[in-house]
Write the structure tokens for this entry.
Amino acid sequence: MPSAPCDALRRQGYQFFSTTSSAALKPCMWCKRALTGGDMCYKHQFYGIASHRCVQMTPTLRCNQRCRFCWRSFEHEVVEEEECSPETILAGIPRFQKKALAGYNAILDNTVTPERWQEALDPRHVAISLSGEPTLYRQLPQLIDLFNRKGYTTFLVSNGTNPEMLARCNPYQMYVSLDAPDKETYISLCRPQDDYWERVKESLALLRSRRSAVRITLVKGLNDFNPEKYAALLQESGSMFVEVKGYMYLGYSRKRLVRENMPEHELVRSFAEKIAAACDYRIKDENVLSRVVCLERVK
Ligand code: SF4
């Protein structure tokens, strides 16, 4: 991996598992907040995941889409890399998480209790969701199996463009993104390298038989229409959960979108209600701060 992008991302807090690959972790804001006794993220509310014991990582920063709402930088694009082995990633999880959280050490920060600090050093959950498309990492099934064997729960978040790879993966919960009600919107908003629309639909069809969720990132004015088309796609998918989440005007997405593309929670909620009214899902929960509504399958 070239060092310039790597250096820029390192300055943003990325911890790389090796010098030749883009596999990295970076604790999210909620991990740090929970560590200091603050709120946990909506994944705690919806699924019971303790934020201070959660590792946000990716086995690759490469991606085959350029979603306009993505908060990663396309300037720091990784084109080629030497993949890190699953064993190297596994071994690096506690080490790099500790390094990334070092400033929060209980000895230095009296808002962090010794118990919480010890728990944070022994993470129990891995969210394969940092950035990039994880299914482009060739050893993803082996990596997840290794996490499973070591007792981590895993969330795998994919853009759905690689159904063959997804079918081989067995995370605790599998996410597929659905960010458009139709192919034309998908092409213009997610800007895939090729027309992957049918492949995304194939990935959605994999969700029926497992613990799963569809993630819809709602961008005001760009994909917040045709709820009945989303509903039809969700109905087909059979996914256990659906998260309708408002786009957040953060990171590099600010170069591509404007603040007005960020929907208020009321809009997210009413759009989720319209989807639920047109398929076999009902509202399970919501988190106003994160502008997210969780639907669950009822049949
Ligand atoms: S698929 Fe994910 S990582 Fe890739 S561009 Fe879209 S939001 Fe970013």
Remarks:
- The mean pLDDT is 92.
- The domain at 3-297 is CATH 3.20.20.70 (TIM Barrel).
- The two ends are 47 Å apart (CA to CA).
